[in-house]
Structure formats: structure tokens, C-alpha cells
Amino acid sequence: MESRFEDSTARRQALRREMVNRRAALDAATHARRSAEIVEILRSTVKMPQICAFCWPIKHEPDVRAIVDDWLGQGARAALPVVDAPGAPLRFREWTPTALLAPDRYGIPTPVAGDWLVPDLILIPLNGFDAAGYRLGYGGGFFDRTLAALVPRPLTVGVGFEINRIDSIQPEAHDQRLDWIVTEAGAFSCGG
Ligand SMILES: Nc1nc2c(c(=O)[nH]1)N(C=O)[C@@H](CNc1ccc(C(=O)N[C@@H](CCC(=O)O)C(=O)O)cc1)CN2
Ligand SMILES: Nc1ncnc2c1ncn2[C@@H]1O[C@H](COP(=O)(O)OP(=O)(O)OP(=O)(O)O)[C@@H](O)[C@H]1O
């Protein structure tokens, strides 16, 4: 049992790095084009939420901030995740275009003030993903823990690039399945 645990942990660690490396190899124009394609698909498939959580892109993740700007202009509110501590669920703090952001413990720009909000939609960046709707992140377990705790559960839409598609992330008991995955190739319902 111990060695099997170490194997799956080692596999995930190697996959996490590989997924970041694949995105890092995209040139800026390709990255921008694919991000824009994802935003177009989101525009035509996702109903505007009341409160949209999204992530400030890191590690060459897709940049879908344009749809958040659209929704803000149409009356929605937006929020970014805040890491209180490793092992704790995320909380979400309001973001507006004038919000002051400061790097958190991982260097991720994070609001330093603002209302704490509960999103009805979360746009979740996919470091890696599979067709069943499982996501590979950066190993913190933050979204798994957060989604396990949120009642009612918000709509979860993973946003990723096709180069980060994996046959199966070999989900574990704690892995939360996303409702939708949107890539530059389309919107996929995961039927979780
Ligand atoms: N853009 C973005 N923001 C996000 C997330 C995300 O996936 N993307 N998160 C999604 O949950 C949360 C942050 N989760 C993170 C977890 C680990 C690392 C990280 O850099 N890990 C190091 C190893 C650090 C360590 O072990 O101490 C690494 O990958 O090198 C970064 C973010 C909240 N904000
Ligand atoms: N609901 C939960 N309760 C307690 N621990 C959890 C829960 N969900 C995940 N974890 C723990 O978090 C750790 C990391 O999980 P995982 O490898 O799935 O992270 P990840 O999805 O890559 O990370 P992140 O969402 O931060 O990007 C695991 O060791 C797991 O035990």
C-alpha cells in the first residue's frame, strides 16, 4: 500500500510539471489566441452568473479575464480565491477593476480588501484534466476541499488548453468532478 501511494503521488507530481512545461512552450500569440477562443466559447455557452469566481492566471494558464469584464459590465460581481492556509478551503473576495491585489504565499495576486462572497459559478483553471471532468492542479487540494464544503455547490467550469488533456488523471476519493470543461476545442459536459 505504501509503495502504491508513493507511485501515484510521484506520477501526479511528474504530470503537474509536464503540464506546466507544455503551456510554457506556447508562444505568446498562440497562448493569447487559444485564450480568446475559450472566452468566445464561454460567451456562447455559459449563462451569466450573479457572482463569478475566477483565478488570476499563473503558470501560463488560460487567461479568461475578458469574460469576467463582460459580466461585470452586465451587472454581475466577481471574486478571486484567497488562500487562508494550506489545508483550509479557499475563500472568495470581491474583485473589481480597481481592487488592490498583493501576492499571496504562492506569489498569486490576491485582493487585500473587499467583501467576502459566495460564487454561484467558478471558472477553474486546469493545469491538467481528463474527459471525465477531473482536474489536476498544483497539489494543494484547494479546489477539492472548497467544493466539498460549498452548499449549494456552485456551477464549476474548468478552463484549459487541449495540450493539457490527459487520458485519465486516475482520480482519488477526494477528487471533485467538474460540471463542464471548456477548451479551445469546445465545451464538454462532464455529467458528474
Ligand atoms: N491562478 C490560480 N490561482 C489559484 C489556484 C490555481 O490553480 N490557479 N489555486 C488552485 O487551487 C489556488 C492556489 N493553489 C496553489 C497551490 C500550489 C501552488 C504552488 O505553487 N505549489 C508549488 C509547490 C509549493 C509547495 O509545495 O509548497 C509548485 O507547484 O511548485 C500554487 C497555487 C488559489 N489560486
Ligand atoms: N476534501 C478534502 N479534505 C481533506 N483533504 C483533501 C480534500 N481534498 C483534497 N485533499 C488533500 O489535498 C491534497 C492534494 O490534492 P490534489 O493532488 O488533488 O491537489 P490538486 O487538485 O492538484 O491541487 P489544487 O486544487 O490546489 O490546485 C491531497 O493530499 C488530498 O489528501
Q: Keywords for this structure?
A:
192 residues, alpha/beta, Rossmann fold, 8-stranded mixed sheet, two-stranded antiparallel sheet, 4 helices, 30% helix, globular, binds ligand FFO, binds adenosine-5'-triphosphate, FTHF_cligase-like_sf, magnesium, ATP-binding, NagB/RpiA_transferase-like
Account of the protein in words:
It is a single chain. The protein has a single domain (2-189), classed as NagB/RpiA/CoA transferase-like (Rossmann fold, 3-Layer(aba) Sandwich). It is an alpha/beta fold. It has helices at residues 2-24, 28-45, 65-73, 142-149; strands at 51-53, 77-82, 91-95, 101-103, 109-111, 116-117, 121-125, 128-129, 135-136, 155-159, 180-183, 186-189. The strands form 3 sheets. The protein has an 8-stranded mixed β-sheet, covered by helices on one side. It contains 4 helices and 12 strands. A hairpin with an 8-residue loop joins strand 2 (77-82) and strand 3. It binds the ligand Nc1nc2c(c(=O)[nH]1)N(C=O)[C@@H](CNc1ccc(C(=O)N[C@@H](CCC(=O)O)C(=O)O)cc1)CN2 and adenosine-5'-triphosphate. Residues 55-58, 61, 81, 83, 90, 106, 108, 125, 137-140, 142-143 line the site of the ligand Nc1nc2c(c(=O)[nH]1)N(C=O)[C@@H](CNc1ccc(C(=O)N[C@@H](CCC(=O)O)C(=O)O)cc1)CN2.
